[in-house]
Write a structure and sequence with these properties.
The protein is an alpha/beta fold. It contains seven helices and 14 strands. It has a single domain, classed as Metallo-dependent phosphatases (Purple Acid Phosphatase, chain A, domain 2).
């Protein structure tokens, strides 16, 4: 008989470090890539508000798609029953066709008073294409504010809605400038004044001008977020770890609400833990 040989015990295979890293990344990142449309609410009180006013804020749509005929976005707005709709720039895009934006504007036209200010991407399309985009606004009776304001009454509350063009207006019209427009709509302090401006990084100027509320976009929520730890990784014109990536900011009586916007397929990097959002701002009076 041949002598019995002992076999070496089989070594258990350990998962490779790369596989572990991939699994951890999948667990941490993949849920953050799932970005359904979110409704985010803010409440602001002021003695200038006689009766409640609800404002829907839309920013940085970039002509992205929200269902057939933009029904996902339109139904989200309708469900909130806003008194006013504010469009804070980059509703159009400089590269994507205007179809989705036009469907959205058609869907809100005639339902609500709608106010709009330009963003940088509208101007980046060039003078001729920019004019075509502004024609679409006119077609759907959207009020464009460009260094101008309107005083309106909602219920028992009188509001002044002011708006300024994006600083990149010089791309198509060098005669106008952001500082000059901001000076033209400076509030008188008598009515609650809402400023529409695309750029949150100009917050100090809105504070110095004495606006009660500024509504902005542009930062896209900092694109990548870690809720409770990192509010945003990078934003245009603010760079890494932007101060005003999205949310509520307050200084010397001025509140600024920065929408994280609606851009999805137009962005070069995916949104992580940063869902596109419809912002609802509730204005109410103070208890005396």
């Amino acid at each position: 008989m041949e002598p019995k040989t002992e076999q070496a015990p089989k070594r258990k295979r350990r998962p490779s470090p790369l596989l572990i890293v991939l699994i951890v990344c999948a667990v941490l990142i993949v849920p953050g890539l799932i970005s359904p449309l979110t409704v985010r609410r803010y409440s602001i009180q002021s003695p200038k508000i006689a009766s409640p006013v609800r404002i829907a804020v839309i920013s940085d749509l970039h002509s992205c798609k929200y269902g057939d005929g933009q029904q996902e976005l339109l139904q989200a707005i309708d469900s909130q029953q806003p008194d006013l709709v504010m469009l804070c720039g980059d509703i159009f895009d400089d590269e994507r066709p205007d179809d989705n934006t036009e469907a959205f504007l058609a869907g809100i036209s005639g339902k609500y008073p709608v106010y709009y200010v330009t963003g940088n991407h509208e101007y980046w399309a060039g003078a001729a294409v920019f004019a075509q985009k502004m024609d679409i606004l006119s077609r759907y009776d959207i009020t464009r504010l460009a260094g101008t304001s309107e005083t309106i009454t909602v219920g028992s509350t009188t509001l002044t809605i002011a708006g300024v063009d994006d600083p990149d207006t010089e791309v198509v019209d060098a005669r106008h400038g952001f500082p000059e427009e901001l000076a033209e709509v400076r509030p008188d302090g008598q009515t609650f004044t809402v400023l529409l401006s695309h750029r949150p990084e100009r917050f100090a100027e809105y504070v110095d001008s004495g606006f009660d509320l500024a509504l902005c976009g542009h930062a896209h929520g900092g694109q990548w977020r870690i809720p409770g730890i990192l509010n945003g990784l990078y934003a245009p014109d603010q760079g890494l770890f932007p101060q005003y990536a999205g949310g509520r900011y307050e200084q010397d009586g001025t509140v600024m609400i920065v929408s994280r916007g609606l851009a999805r397929e137009s962005t070069s990097a995916p949104r992580i833990y940063n869902p596109p959002e419809l912002v609802i701002v509730e204005l109410g009076g103070t208890q005396g």
